[in-house]
Amino acid sequence: MTLTVVGAGYVGLVTAAVFSELGNKVFCVDVDKSKIESLKKGKMPFFEPSLPEYIQRNVTAKRLFFTATYAKAIPQSQAVFICVGTPPKNDGEADLSYLFAAVEETAKNLSGYTLITIKSTVPIGFENELENTVKKYAKNNFEFAASPEFLREGTAIEDTLHPDRIVIGTTSKRAQKVLLELHAPIPGERIICDTRSAQLIKYASNALLATKVSFANAIAAICEKIGADVQKVMEGVGADKRIGRSFLYPGVGYGGSCLPKDVLAFIAIGKHFNYDFDLLRTVDAINFGQIENFVNKIKIALGARSSEGRSLKDKTLGVLGLAFKPNTDDMREAPSVKIINRLLDLGAEVKAYDPQAMASAKKLLPNVKYAKDLKGAIKMADAMVVITEWREFSEMDLKTVKKLLKKPIIIDGRNIIDKEKALSLGFKYYGVGR
Ligand SMILES: NC(=O)c1ccc[n+]([C@@H]2O[C@H](COP(=O)([O-])OP(=O)(O)OC[C@H]3O[C@@H](n4cnc5c(N)ncnc54)[C@H](O)[C@@H]3O)[C@@H](O)[C@H]2O)c1
Asked: Into how many domains does the chain fold?
């Protein structure tokens, strides 16, 4: 089949790479001309394991094409996947301007029956508006479907090739057939439903994942008060198959381009349909509170008096991890940004290292000193602060760490350091809920 993927971001590029790998002819369209030019030269706009190899292989095989011109792609395509961003507006609602612009440009170039599938995360209730947008321009036969995306950055290719489920949100048999055929080589449960249910599956899934993280953080707070170990508590809770272990990890809170914005958008959707989503408001509030909780831990660890405005003046902190999670360079809503800005406000000097995200971090955090490696970040620092759970941080040799630090203090925002070992080596160790 010939397809167009609109949007060459995380979702769009991975979708284009995988569908071309499966033997389809795929055009990937983006309005960002410089991004398209770089992609044509084989340069990736972000770090994602395996993606460059998939792209290169399919470009060479002439199955994957990049263009900034809709007219070169849409008229030849039987199916179009819209993968543009839906970032939050100030009030938490999703900004749909990119979505409508993409649908409008698609509409202007339709030729013959085309299925337009929305993969972007889009709030409920815009079906009519989207249809009307297309009808303004297209005399041709078209249908809409929703097939929300569940990939995780860092394992995006693997997640797309081996998903838990594929949601096919359309009641049209013809549209279902197109999507089922396209996904035929990919395993995973098929959930076939109406468009609104499909969109709700996406929001409800992300809301539940965020709830698990905030729940773990609430339990961690109780553990700290009563002297229990949240790691053990969550191990015990997660061993129950009805609950599961994933996402029950306390820390500095969830971040990234999806959970924070989708929680806020879901609260706004609830409001729109007259439902007060107070459960999710609490999830969001707990997440927000994790930043200040962690900064307070750092202050306590360094003996700073909380009443003093610049209580971390003269302190140097070696910060490990900037990306919102490991195996990505994505800094969108990364907790590191808020934490580091607070530390800088309190007068600290911050030396940071991240295996992939330093280039993107420099734009957001210009007043940080960036080290070329882990050792450079912690050398002569008053404490080591772990924010992202990259494997190289959990595997570091604590004896070497101790030699490099000015003082043997670890503040571990992800509970990845072996606490017993750290204590036995004479470190002061501060985790989350342990
Ligand atoms: N990133 C993730 O992990 C992830 C996972 C699941 C779902 N999603 C959802 O998928 C959607 C896309 O997210 P993303 O992270 O890939 O976004 P992104 O910001 O990485 O990429 C969006 C791309 O769309 C392009 N674009 C904007 N307007 C356009 C237009 N009119 N025509 C063509 N291209 C246009 C931008 O230039 C950009 O390259 C969002 O709704 C997001 O919530 C993201």
From this structure: 2
Does 260 contact ligand 1 (Cβ within 6 A)? Answer: no
Would you place residue 339 in the very low, low, confident or very high pLDDT band (cuts 50, 70, 90)?
A: very high
In a domain, 262, yes or no: yes
For strand 114-118 and strand 25-29, is the pairing parallel, antiparallel, or unpaired? Answer: unpaired
pLDDT tens-digit series, residues 92-135:
889 999 999 999 999 999 999 999 999 999 999 888 899 999 99
- For residue 240, name the pLDDT band (cuts at 50, 70, 90): very high
Q: Which of 4, 15, 30 to mutate to test the pocket of ligand 1 (most atoms within 8 A of CB)?
A: 30
Is residue 28 flagged as an active site residue? no
Long-range contacts of 372-378 (CB under 8 A, 24+ apart): 374/320, 375/400, 375/404, 376/351, 377/318, 377/319, 377/320, 377/351, 377/352, 377/353, 378/318, 378/320, 378/351, 378/404, 378/405
Model confidence pLDDT, tens digit, residues 127-152: 889 999 999 998 779 999 999 999 99
274 Ramachandran zone, left/alpha/beta (phi>0; psi -120 to 50):
left
258 lines ligand 1 (CB under 6 A): yes
Q: Pick the residue whose CA is nearest to atom 12 on ligand 1.
A: 85
Question: Which range marks the domain in which residue 72 is found?
Answer: 2-193
**Same domain flag for 38 and 105:** yes
Shared domain for 366 and 221, answered yes or no, is: yes
Same domain, 183 and 302: no
Cα–ligand 1 centroid distance for 120 (angstroms)? 7
What's the pLDDT tens digit per position in 12-40?
A: 999 999 999 999 999 999 999 999 999 99
Atom of ligand 1 nearest to the CA of 152: 3
Which of 178, 193, 208 is the endpoint of a domain?
193
pTM of the model: 0.96
Residue 423 is assigned to a structural domain of this protein: yes
211: in domain: no
Residue 188: CATH number of its domain? 3.40.50.720
pLDDT of residue 200: 97
Measured in Å, residue 10 CA sits from the centre of ligand 1 at 7
| DSSP one-letter string for 344-401 | HHTT-EEEEE-TTTHHHHHHH-TTSEEPSSHHHHHTT-SEEEE-S--HHHHTS-HHHH
